[in-house]
Structures are given as C-alpha cells and as structure tokens.
Design a protein that fits this description.
Elements (H helix, E strand, L loop, with lengths): L1 H23 L2 H16 L9 H24 L24 H5 L3 H6 L5 H12 L4 H8 L3 H16 L12 H14 L2 H7 E10 L11 E2 L1 H13 L6 E7 L2 E8 L2 E11 L2 E8 L6 H8 L13
Parallel strand pairs: 1-6
Antiparallel strand pairs: 1-2, 3-4, 4-5, 5-6
Length: 306
C-alpha cells in the first residue's frame, strides 16, 4: 500500500509544488509544505479518500494558509524590496506555461501583487485563475460557499486590476536584446542603455540585507541606467551571464565558479524594458541554484564575455 500511496503522491507532486509556490512566493517553503502533505497522505487511509487530487490540494492550501499570516508579518520588517524566490521554468518546475495566462500566474510581478490579497482571496484567485478550478470545486476545497468564493475572486481581481502586469513576452527577440543590454551596461554605455529602457522603467533589487543593494525601487530611464551600469561593472571578471527562463519570463543568471549569485528578470513591452527585478539574496537563490547546477552546459549570452 505504501508504494501505491507514494506513486499516487508523486504523480501529484509537481502540481502541488506549483500550487504552494504561487500561494507562498517561496520555493523553499513550497517544498516544505509538499513534504508535510506527503507525510499526512501516508498517515491517512487512502482507501477512504474518494478524490485524492482534491484532498491533497486541500491539505496543501491549509498548510499554506497557516504560513501566510506569519510570512506577511516577517515581510513587514524585510530589508529593502521583497521579491519572490526565482524559479527556472524551462524544465516545467511550475507546471505548463503554454499561454499568457499561465505565464502570468508565476511572474514575479503578479506574485508581488498577490501580497495585497488576504490569504482567502489569494487561495481563491490561484485556484480559479492559475489552475482552472470551478467555483464549486474551489468552495469544496476551501470549505466556503460558492457565493463567498465568487465574492472573494471578484474582490481579488479588483485589487489587482490597476497594476496587473503588462505581460507580453517576446521569446524570438529577448536573447539578442538581453545581450545588447548587458554589453551596454558592462561598457558603461548609458546612451545605448537608456534607449532600451522605457521612460517609466522601474528596477527592484532584493538583497534582503544580506548583500549590498538598493533599499528602495529605482525609477526612471536615466536613474535606472546609471544604477544598472554601476552594479554590473562592479562584478568580477569571472562572472558569466547565462540566459534562462525564470518564472515564465526572460532572465539572466549571474554565474561564477559553478555558483549562482544573482538573477535578473526583465519585463518587455513594445520593444522596451519596462521593469527589472533582481534577486541577490543568497537565501532566495538556493532552489534556482540547484536547478542551474543541473544544466549540463549553460550557454552564455552570445557575443558577451564577462
């Protein structure tokens, strides 16, 4: 029976991890939640569970809801901008990202916005919009009425509507754009860098007080260009820039000596960079670092030598 229970759970594990990550914004916490759910699954009578998929989703959500309140309190005292933990998504770690809605559901921009929601609103939003659960299924999992779930989803959408990210990935062009961007930043070519940035571009850097980083967002084309050029030129010669897909978006990994010490995620719209989010807090890079270590021969950005 144990083997059968394990096999059933392993089939659900990727979906459960993706669910927990979207709720918590932390890959490490999502892994802990999924492992806890597994232990609970082994300790229950699986024969009495009519719908394992819904049962496991309910367990994971309840575990996440228990963590969200304390996580929000901790983030109130976080040093500098808080960003979710980055996850490489080309290997399907967060489930299929075949359309714009699926990619948006894991974007760093949307995950930051989800911090505005109450735990219940966030749970309903994720179940409905990221995983396509019906109102009836959502109500059963959360033990709420369908009317309440509809109200929570409507409230969540209203809270997110104004600042919902403009998610328009351009996979055919982003690698060459990233190469040009990094080359200009490395050379300190502010004029070329500014031409790639939208006038209202914003840059956030999550150092968590662990590394030197701006404690406030940097706004505007000229200020962002100077900030990025200064930060990149301070990197050592042994650093390589590796293109990757992070949270469904184009990104650059800063790799040195086989280790990952920075992730830069871009938002592009209309051929311009509209936002940049950099994660440098080493505590938040552990999951992505394990993923990056599995890349057999990561290819550096063409034409760029660090």
């Amino acid at each position: 029976m144990a083997d059968g229970a394990t096999e059933e759970f392993q089939a659900q594990r990727p979906r459960l991890f993706g669910l927990a990550y979207r709720l918590l914004g932390s890959a490490a916490d999502a892994e802990d939640v999924v492992q806890d759910a597994y232990l609970r699954w082994l300790g229950t009578d699986q024969q009495a569970v009519a719908a394992p998929r819904a049962w496991l989703a309910k367990v994971v959500i309840n575990l996440c809801l228990n963590r969200l309140a304390s996580a929000r309190a901790q983030r109130e005292h976080y040093a500098g901008p808080w960003l979710p933990e980055p996850v490489l998504t080309e290997d399907g770690a967060l489930g299929p990202l075949d359309d714009v809605a699926q990619r948006e559901s894991v974007s760093l921009a949307l995950l930051v916005l989800l911090e505005r929601l109450t735990p219940a609103e966030r749970a309903v939003f994720v179940l409905r919009e990221a995983f396509g659960y019906s109102h009836g299924e959502t109500a059963q999992i959360l033990e709420l009425s369908e009317a309440n779930c509809r109200q929570l989803q409507r409230r969540a959408r209203d809270r997110l509507a104004q600042d919902r990210p403009r998610f328009r990935p351009e996979p055919a062009h982003w690698r060459s754009l990233a190469g040009r961007f990094l080359a200009a930043a490395r050379a300190g070519d502010l004029r070329s860098l500014e031409r790639m940035l939208a006038a209202d571009v914003t840059a956030w850097t999550d150092g968590g007080g662990r590394v030197s980083a701006a404690r406030r967002p940097v706004f505007g084309r000229e200020r962002v260009a100077r900030y990025l050029a200064g930060g990149i030129t301070r990197l050592g010669d042994g650093v390589r820039a590796v293109p990757a897909e992070v949270n469904g978006e184009p990104a650059i990994l800063a790799v040195s000596g086989g280790g990952l010490f920075g992730v830069l995620v871009f938002e592009w719209s209309g051929g311009e960079i509209t936002a940049l989010r950099a994660v440098a807090n080493p505590d938040k890079l552990r999951f992505a670092a394990r993923q990056a270590a599995r890349l057999s021969h990561p290819e550096a950005v063409p034409g760029l030598h660090w």
